[in-house]
Write a structure and sequence with these properties.
It contains 3 helices and no strands. Helix 1 packs across helix 2. 2% of the residues are buried.
Length: 94
């Protein structure tokens, strides 16, 4: 079996739930992506990048994660961060 690191690309066929298909179709229709395949690749790449960034950032403000107040503050920070990222993305498109 091949190591995941040695795979340059693979074709995958999946059925998308309707809400995801419509979301990706809107991105193609608005010109953000040239076709559905590119929209899937682009959005998965964005999601992976955001996940990696979150993983790197979390140690900065999660020293005592087990404390309820700290957990609550971290959740609020994460919510604000996501809202800001969404706003930046909306302004890029608009």
């Amino acid at each position: 079996m091949e190591s995941p690191d040695s795979i340059s690309s693979k074709q995958v066929g999946v059925r998308l739930p309707g809400h995801l298909y419509r979301w990706l179709r809107e991105k193609v229709d608005s010109g953000e992506y040239p076709n559905m395949a590119q929209s899937v690749i682009g959005e998965l790449t964005k999601a992976r990048t955001l996940e990696e960034v979150r993983r790197r950032e979390s140690p900065y403000y999660s020293i005592h994660e087990e404390e309820p107040l700290v957990r609550m503050v971290n959740e609020r920070i994460e919510g604000f961060r996501r809202e800001l990222l969404d706003e930046v993305e909306r302004r890029r498109r608009g």
